[in-house]
Write a structure and sequence with these properties.
It contains 15 helices and 16 strands. By secondary structure, the chain is α/β, with parallel strands linked by helices. A hairpin with a 4-residue loop joins β1 (4-7) and β2. α6 crosses α7 (234-249), α10 (324-346) runs antiparallel to α13 (395-408) and α14 (426-440) runs antiparallel to α15 (444-456). The longest helix is centred in the C-terminal third of the chain and has 23 residues, at 324-346. Bound molecules: zinc ion. Zinc ion (ZN) binds at residues 29, 212, 237.
């Protein structure tokens, strides 16, 4: 079978082959750490996670980089407003970002470089662009001159005429030669406060676009296999990354560009002014579509794996509409898979299970090979659930489901498995031990209260000859 990805650059599905051996050099635009990331951002990170997991599933070795933008207008403005050093401010939101990744079971990539640790690399690229005549010094910044780069606009499929029209209308507002010329290096002004670097190209700070070129090429070389991001980044961000990287190196920057579509909420673009703007943490607290009248999904907080399911169940190149109903069906879908796992742990494989598993595996791979068609792959998974249940599901069926979950990442292996108290998270372990203590003292009422409390946290206990064991109810 042939793995094919849709390439934004050529607007075609193309067979994917890395440039060298089976190692994939992949770069994904990461967060600007100035606030909590919203659920639309996580659609992009989950889409990237699926690409990553499927490449690994197919036997590729990953060298995957995601940048952390820890210096820009917003981080500087917010840290100054709060009277905090920039690094302290961005450290807080970087930590929150990683916690959110863990919540959604998004795998860590190989490296997360920070912009502020790579100023020298950025200065080197800007220096090369100045020398080669692609860049010029303006009053407030060093700009990239797009008219020096003939294929500018190619990624976004912009016509030269469109770019020229923009130039005529907007030219007077900027201290630059062309409206679409973009800042590579911003010269210091008083709003930057103590945020600046003294460098050979002047005192200032990097523009946003140059960060990605510098960090991707430092760790992956001049040519990347895959670059991912949301469709909103195609222009100008990714177009600018191409211009400045190829201008500096003279080599092709990216072989496959992969972009995910937007997430909508109740059919509309998410925005703070519409009141339909949600962070991941809002959803975990129960906010989101289901709060609305008429919706029956429980408002007491959404299951993180249901949120993940919702984010991956639509094809990454289709707009995704998040509604209360959609979250509710995502929860039901995940619960069906958990129930299957739980039953298969105690069940026995029936006649024909090998054939059913094999057919499902083939169908799943065929769908995923076709530009990561997750809706089709999930329908294969649910056909498998139906057929395996009918035939009798045991260890072979379970093994197949766990194989699917390497790609889906729904934490199905954590379902219904009995564990020892020492394997429980701190808070739960303390409660289990406390209950044991009370039982020793024959405080049955106190012990039962703790059992109820654990039940409320989704944990059930069983007392065995070797002591208590626990598992998650969901
Ligand atoms: Zn980027």
């Amino acid at each position: 079978m042939v793995l094919r990805f849709y390439n934004t650059l050529t607007r075609k599905k193309e067979e994917f082959r890395p440039q060298s051996g089976n190692e994939v050099r992949m770069y994904s635009c990461g967060p600007t750490v100035y606030d909590y990331a919203h659920i639309g951002n996580f659609r992009a990170y989950v889409a990237t996670d699926i690409i990553r997991r499927y490449l690994k599933y197919r036997g590729f070795k990953l060298k995957h980089i995601m940048n952390i933008t820890d210096v820009d207008d917003k981080t500087i403005r917010n840290s100054r407003e709060q009277g905090m050093p920039l690094s302290k401010y961005t450290e807080k939101y970087t930590k929150i970002f990683f916690e959110d990744l863990d919540t959604l079971n998004i795998e860590r990539v190989e490296r997360y470089p920070k912009a502020t640790d790579h100023i020298n690399e950025m200065v080197d690229i800007v220096g090369a662009l100045l020398r080669k005549g692609y860049a010029y010094k303006g009053k407030d910044a060093i700009y990239f001159s797009i008219s020096k780069f003939p294929s500018y606009g190619e990624l976004a499929h912009l016509e030269k005429a469109q770019l020229k029209a923009g130039a005529r209308v907007k030219n007077d507002e900027y201290d630059k030669e062309h409206a679409h010329d973009f800042a590579l290096w911003k010269l210091w002004d008083k709003d930057d406060g103590d945020v600046f670097w003294e460098t050979s190209i002047g005192k200032g700070r990097p523009g946003w676009h140059i960060e990605c070129s510098a960090m991707s090429m430092k760790y992956l070389g001049p040519t990347l296999d895959i670059h991912t991001g949301g469709v909103d980044l195609i222009f100008p961000h990714h177009q600018n990354e191409i211009a400045q990287s190829e201008g500096a190196t003279g080599k092709q920057f990216v072989r496959y560009w992969m972009h995910n579509e937007h997430l909508m909420v109740d059919g509309q673009k998410m925005s703070k002014s519409r009141g339909n703007f949600y962070t991941l943490r809002d959803l975990l607290k129960g906010k989101g579509g289901p709060d609305k009248p008429g919706n029956t999904a429980k408002p007491s907080g959404h299951d993180p794996m249901a949120i993940r399911y919702l984010l991956l169940a639509s094809h990454y190149r289709q707009k995704l509409n998040m509604t209360g109903e959609a979250l509710k069906s995502a929860k039901q879908a995940v619960d069906r898979l958990r129930e299957f796992v739980s039953n298969a742990r105690d069940g026995e494989d029936g006649e024909g299970i090998e054939g059913i598993a094999k057919k499902a595996k083939e169908g799943f791979e065929k769908a995923m090979d076709d530009d990561l068609n997750t809706p089709e792959a999930l329908s294969v998974v649910f056909d498998f659930v139906r057929e395996a249940n009918k035939a009798g599901a045991g260890s072979r069926a379970l093994e197949q489901m766990m194989d699917f979950d390497k790609v889906l990442g729904l934490r199905l292996s954590e379902t219904g498995e009995w564990k020892k108290p020492e394997d429980a998270p701190e808070e739960i372990r303390k409660l289990i031990l406390d209950r044991e203590e009370r039982r020793k003292q024959k405080d049955w009422e106190g012990a039962d209260k703790i059992r109820d409390k654990l039940g409320g946290m989704g944990i059930i206990l069983e007392d065995t000859e070797d002591g208590p064991r626990w598992k998650k109810t969901t």
